[in-house]
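just leaving the lab so this will be short. what follows is a protein written twice so to speak, once as letters and once as structure tokens for the fold. can you read through it and tell me how you think this chain folds. thanks a lot i owe you, the record is right below.

___
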Amino acid sequence: MEKTLSVVNTLLVDTFNNILTIEQNALKKEKFFDVSVAEVHTIEAIGMYQTKSMSEVARSLRITMGTLTVAINNLVKKGYVERFRCQSDKRVVQIKLTKKGKLVYRVHEQFHKNVVQATISGLTEEEHKVLCQTLTKLNVYLQKYF
């Protein structure tokens, strides 16, 4: 059991670190040198087609409004996000992606599709089931932890 714990720990840590590094390299390859992986995840939380309030995005990312405000300020300066006041309630700040932001969103989405495809490629149906069950258990645990 101890060996299994060690192997799983190493694999999870290595996988997480590799994904972050590869994500950053994928962005650079597509000529997005000025955006971090954290900023791309903010772009992802905003979404392609909808306008969202700042509070919706902060809740989705599980971060404070102050943290999101700093991130959005940077993304607005870089031209990835537009920010404006809601017409019906001026207290509400809304955000949406610019054309440049949507392009980054698509690049990031394709990266995730490639990772998932590589992960399940060559697996049997039973292995697909086991992988999904295992990841579901991990996800449930992590959600309870936070």
The chain has a mean pLDDT of 92. The longest helix spans residues 2-29.
